[in-house]
Amino acid sequence: MQLYNTLTRQKEDFKQISDPVRMYVCGPTTYDEPHLGHGLSTVIFELLQSYMEYRGINVKRVQNFTDVDDKIIDRAAEMGIDWFDLTQEHINSFLEAMDGLNVQPADVHPRVTEEIDPIIELIGKLVDSGAAYEAGGSVYFRVRRDEDYGKLSGRTADRMDELARLEPDLLKENPEDFALWKAWKPGEPAWESPWGPGRPGWHIECSAMARRYLGDQIDIHGGGLDLVFPHHENEVAQSESATGVVPFARFWVHNGLLRMAGDEKMSKSLGNFVTVRDALKSHTPDAIRLWIFQSHYRSPATYDAENLIAAERAVRRLRQAANAVNTGEDSGDRYDAEHIKQRFVVAMDDDLNTPRALATIFDLAREIFTAQSDGSNIADGQAMLRELVGVLGMTLDEPRHGGEAGDGKIDELIAERQNARQKRDFETADGIRDQLMSMGIEISDTTQGTTWRRT
RNA sequence: GGCGACGUAGCCAAGCGGCCUAAGGCGGGGGUUUGCAAAACCUCUAUUCGGCGGUUCGAAUCCGCCCGUCGCCUCCA
Question: Which residues is A61 bridged to in the sheet?
Answer without folding.
Answer: A23
